[in-house]
C-alpha cells in the first residue's frame, strides 16, 4: 500500500474543479491537482459526530465538498436510464468567508443522463458569495445556475426525504422526486471515512435508500421514469498523493434491498487502496477491508483514446458475493474539463441488482 | 532545360546593355508593391487591434444584455438570469485615472466568461491569482510601457484606490485594464453593479427574458463587424485607395518599361525563333523572366513597404485614436499572409502590365521583319479606343453618382472619374497638339507639334500617372484645407469656456464650485455633463449644455428652429449632431424618445450642430434637464468664463488649491492647440501618401523620358544634320516635355477639384457623417502646379542634358545603321 496514496471517492472532482479552471498546474501537482497542501483548512478528525440537518449544508472551512446523486431509472417499457447530479464546492483559500465577489469558494456542477444508446452531460461553474451557486442546510437547498436539489415540503432531515432534483443541458433535462423511508447511513467509522493507512480521511455519509420518480427529456422527447437513487455527501481538506493515478468506485442496489459501496484507489506502485461498506435496510452494516474485496476489470472499451474497463468481476467472501457488473452504456464518457467515466451498471451472479460506476485516471 | 537557360541568358543580355531600362522596370515594380504592401500592413495592424479590442469582453462579437435605461444595473439580475438557465457573465466597465491618464477598466468574472467571448484571455493558469486578493490588473505591454511600470507594481488610481499588482496580457488591447469584477466594483465605487452581461452560446432550456428581469434589460445581438471596424472603415478605405493608386501608377511604369524592352528585343526574339526556339519555349522563358523579376522586386518592395508602414504607423495610430478612440499598438507585427499577398500582387501586377507584350510575343512570326515602331503606331488606334473607353467609364461614374448611396459607391465614383480622365488624357492631348500643329507657322514649329504628337504615345502612360497623382493631390489637398478651415472656425465657436475643469468626483466638483463662487475674476461657472443611452438601437451620448448667454451666443448650429435656445432651456427640446441627423434621418421638428432611468424622455429636435471628430451619435440638451432625467451622472465637468487677464492666475490657484493636474485642468488655448495638433496628425498620413504618389508619378515620367531618349535619336538626327545645334535640340526637347506636362497639369486642376467635391460631398458624408463647405484655394492650386512643373523639369532634365552632351558620332551613327 502506498504510503501517500490517499483519496476520498470523487475527491478528484473537487480537485478538478479548481484545477480545470486553473488549467496548467493540474497535472503537475498530483492527480487532479490535489497535491496542494491543505494547510489552513479545518482538519478531518475521528470521533466527530455528524449532526443533521446542519451537516446537510456547506462546510466552508474544509477545502472540498460535494453533494452527489446517482439514479438508476427505467421507463414504462423497462428501458434503463441513468441520471447524475453533482455539486462540488472548493475553497481557493482558507480563512473567514469573504463577502460578495471576494468570496473564496468556487462551485462546479456536473449533470448527465444515460440511456443504452446515448449519454448526455453538461457542466457549469460559479463563484460563491453572489448567489449564483450555493447550499444551505435548512430549509435544505443546493444549487448552481438553474440546477437545483432542494428539500420538499416537510423534509425529514434524518432521511433527507423528500427531495426535488433538476438539471438541464443543451440536449437533455430531467426532474426527479426522491423519497426514502430509511435513515441516512454513515460511511466508514460513523462517518469518518479513512482513505489511507496514515489515517487521512473525509467525512462521508450517504442516503442509498431513495426511490426516484420523474421525467427525463432527451432531444425534446420527455419520458416518465421510476427507479432507485443514491446520494453521497462528503467533505475533506486533504490533498492527494502525487503517485495517485485514479480510482474505480461503485454503488450497488441489490434486488434484496441491501446496499454496497466500494472503491479502489490505483497508485503508480500497483498497490491499490480498497475499501467498502455494506448496508441492510434493517439497520445492519459491515465495513469491508482491503483483503476481503476482489475487483477485477474484465472487458475494456476504447473511448477518447483510452482503454476503460466497462465490465467488472467483484467477489467479497464474507458476503458470499461473486458478481459480474456490466455497464448499461459503455460510452458514459464525461468529456468535461476534467474527463472521467461515470454511468449506470447492472450486475448478476450470486446477487442481482443495479448501480453506478465511476472511473477516473484512465 | 539547358536550352531554356541559354534563351534566358540571351534575354538577360538585353538588360545588361540597358541598365537604365532595367532600373525603370525594377523601380516600377518596387514602388507598386511598396506602397500597396505598406498600406496593407497598416490596415492589417489596425484590424488586428480592433479584434483585440472587440475580444476584450466588450462583446460586439458576443450577444449582450444591457440596461434598458442605459446605465448599470444590480448584479442580482445576473444571478436571477443564471438561475433561470441563461449562460450570462457579468462585466463592469468604467474609466480609471492613473498618473493623470485615463484607462478603460473592465471588471470580468473569469469563471462564467463564455469561451467565445475572448477565450478567457486574462486567466490562463492563474484563476486564484486573478480572483483572490490582492488580485491582478491585466494590461497590454503597450499600456505597461505607457505607465512606465513593470510587472508586479501596484499603482494608485486618482481616487486614492490601489490597483491590484500589474500583470502583462499580450492579447489585450492597449489602454484597457482588466481586473476581477469584484475589484472593479470597488475601484469604481459601484458595489454590486454590472454594466452588461455577455450571453454565452451554450443552449439549454431558459426562461424568457422578460419573465426574469421584466423590461429592465435588453438583448443586443452580436454584429458581424466591430464598432471600430465600422467607424474606421472609411479611414482604411482611404488608405487602401491611396495604396491602390500608387500600385497602378507603378504598373504604368512597369508597362512602359516592358513594352519598350519588348520592342527593342524584337530582333533578338526573331533571331531566337529563327535559331529554332519554339514559340512556346520563348514564351515560357519570357514569362519565367518576368516572374523572376517580379519576385525579386516584390521582396524589395515588401521591405520598402515595411519601412513606409513603420514610418507612417505613429501617425496612423494617432489619427485613429484621435478620430475614433481606437488604440493601435506602435509596433508593427506582420503575418506570413502579408508577405505572401505582397509577392502575389507583385507577380500578378507584373503579368498584368506585361499582358499586351506577352500576347504579341506569342503571336510573333518567325519571318516577320522587325518593326520597332509598330508598337507605337498601333498606339494611335489605342488613343481612340481609350477615348471611347473613357466615355464608358465616365458613364459608369455618373451611374454610381446617380444611383449609389454608400461609401463604396462614393469611392467607385472617384475611381471611375480618375480612370476615365486618365484614359481620356491621350486623346485630349492629341487634340490640343493637333490644333497646335494646325496653327503652326514655319518648319521647326510644325515639326515641334508633330513630333510632340509622335512622342505622345510613348509618354502617355507617364502622363496619365502624373495626371492621376496630381489630381488626387489637388482633391485631397482641397478637402483637407476645407476641413481644416471649417474645423478651426468650429473649434473657436465650440470652445466657449475659458477654462475646463474635470474634478475627480462630485464632492471635489462641489468644493471647486463653492470656491469659484467667491472669486471675482470668474464671470460664469458652467456645469457640464453627459449621459449614455440608446437611440434606434445604437449608443447615444447626451450632452448637457448649461443655460448661459455664452452658449446661446457662440455655440455653432448648422440649422435651428425659432427660439431654439429658449425651447432647449425648457428641457423638452434638443439639438442633434449632424452625424445623428444624417444617420437616423432626423430633421428639425422631429420628435425622438430616449430611455432614461425614469422611463422614456420625449424630446423635439430644434437644432442641428456640427460635431466633427466624434464617432458617437450625440444630442445636446439643457444641463438641468439632463441632470433631472439622469440623476446619477457625474457632475465633475465644469467650464469657466473668466477675464482673459485672470486666466493664468485662476489656473495656478486651482492647481494649488485642489491638486488638479494638466489632465483635469486645461485652458481654452491649450485645448485648442491640442485639438489642432490631433487634427493635423490625422491628415499627415494623407499628406505623406500624397507626396509618395507624386514622387512615383515623377519617377514614371523620368523613366519614360529616359527610355524614349535613346529611341528618339532617329527623329533628332536629321534635325541636327540640317544645322540645329545639340543645345537647341535639347532646349526644344525640354520645351516639348514641359508643355505636355503643363497641359497635363492644367487638366489635372479641374479634375482635382472634381475629386475634392466627391470627397467632400459624397465620401466624407458617408464616412464620417458630416458635410463641409466646399472651398477652392487658388494659392494651393498654384503651388501644386509649380511642384508638378518642377517635378517634370527634374524628370526631363537628365535626358535633355544627356542629349545636349551627346557625341556627334552618336547622331551620325543613326544614318550609318538605321534600324
What do you see in this structure?
The complex is a heterodimer of chains A (362) and B (819). By secondary structure, chain A is mostly beta strands. Chain A has 1 helix and 23 strands. The radius of gyration of chain A is 19 Å and the shape is globular. In chain A, strands 1, 2, 3, 4, 5, 6, 7, 8, 9, 10, 11, 12 and 13 form a 13-stranded antiparallel sheet that branches. The relative contact order of chain A is 0.18. Chain A starts with 10 loop residues before the first helix and ends with a strand. With 819 residues, chain B is an alpha+beta fold. Among the domains of chain B are: 62-222, no CATH class; 504-659, no CATH class. Chain B is 61% helix and 14% strand. In chain B, the strands form 3 sheets. In chain B, strands 11, 12, 13, 14, 15, 16, 17, 18, 19 and 20 form a 10-stranded mixed sheet that branches. In chain B, strands 6-5-7-4-3-9-1-10 form an 8-stranded mixed sheet. In chain B, a hairpin with a 2-residue loop joins strand 16 (591-596) and strand 17 (599-609). The two termini of chain B are 33 Å apart. Mean pLDDT of chain B is 80; it is low at 119-124. Chains A and B meet through helix 1 and strand 4 of A and helix 3, helix 4 and helix 6 of B.
Please state the structural category of chain A: mainly beta
Main pleated-sheet profile of chain A: 13 strands, antiparallel
Report the sheet with the most strands of chain B, covering strand number, pairing sense and barrel closure: 10 strands, mixed
DSSP strand count of chain B: 20
